[in-house]
Amino acid sequence: MASNADEHPESPTSPTSPNEESDTQGVVTEPEPLPGLDGHPVRWYDADRTEPYTRITPFQEKHDTSVEFFYKPTTLTALGVALAILAYIATTEDVLREGRDKRRLGVYASLAAFLLFSVIQFRDGPFVRPHPAFWRAVLGINLLYELALVFLLFQDLASAREMMKALDPSLGVPMPEKSYAEDCSLTPRTIWDAMDIFCIAHTLGWLGKALILRDYWFCWILSIAFELAEYSLQHQLANFAECWWDHWILDVLVCNWLGTYFGMKMCQYFEVKPYEWRGFRQSRGLRAKTQRVLSQFSPHDFTTFKWGTATSFVHYISVVALLLVFLTAELNPFYLKALLWMKPDHPFVIMRLTFMFLCAVPAVRELYQYINDPRRAVRMGQHVWLLLATVATELLVIFKWSVRLLREENSGPFAAPFPKTVKWGWSLGAFFVVLYPVVQFGIPAIRHYVRRSKRATRVKTQ
Hints:
Layout lengths: L3 H4 L67 H17 L11 H19 L10 H22 L3 H11 L20 H7 L2 H17 L2 H18 L10 H29 L13 H10 L17 H27 L7 H26 L9 H27 L11 H42 L1
């Protein structure tokens, strides 16, 4: 019997031994395509974002073997170290002598123990940079804030002010609300007087909102909606009263637009950035190692948000609900600082805004996946669920304290009645919010149902 090699001559693709000459030496092979566009790498500012290569799909995290310790479960080690620290602080007099008040130290220790549990035992969120434990800690802080709000919900306003005074002795003093509509003449002096530190805060705030929402139109709608909300509520808080040019020129067209512009540019950069994660040991040179350390604090991957309100009724309801939650979260601190007598630049107010940004980044990411990928996201994420509870509890606290002030002292934010123009404006806005889905989704669905019924009737008659 002849061998298979005799029956079938060696094909050009068959392997050859190292000592044999290959039959494919005369075959002309096509050169491999050059990477990027014409051999040049794709830069973030000249990329065509309508092409599919800009839509990066998130990939599985590959841990750096040089820092594998930070990704291994060390729950027992952390428990032992934490218990040792607690034993040292609680049983020795090196930190605080016996007989002195230790209630504040006990509260701090309880908070630290809860955050340690959250870092170790909570589920991972959608982000892995700089480390999943960081976002677990953010979730733990959100839960502590929610528990504090639930506690305040059962306290009267006077008791809450006393508690805030215990945290900061400078609080507990009535503060008048500042109005920004005293001189609305459009002159260089009035414009210069309006340019304060809050303009920078506005810009940074909208940069953060752009990083959270990742959509130009959504940011513009939210920006205009917030200014309309200030118009509607300036009879309750004098802080909302601003000149027309302060609303639409200084806020919308300058501060909000600049923050949104630079925020979206950052999103575009992260969208087309090549994500290649090499280990610290694999990086050669001091510059490469430094860049690897700094890149640990950048996104692991980036997902572009396409909210698409006109695609389906579910998307429309989700976008409207997210807009209302954002507006509520933006308005709540104005009422809380007015009720608790805090300045706008108080550290508690700044901490709350920073904390809300950190909580909203993973929350909106989880909400987007829950809406657009229901097969994988079978339930709402923990970050978005807890943030919704936090914003709603804040609103309940504000409503309860304001109603009590109105009943007992006939004062507070709700003392002044709503103007008729505000009522008509909100009614008209609610009418169009309801009318759009009826025209866009309801009428076509009814037509489709009628046509299908007619076809079914014709089939039965035939």
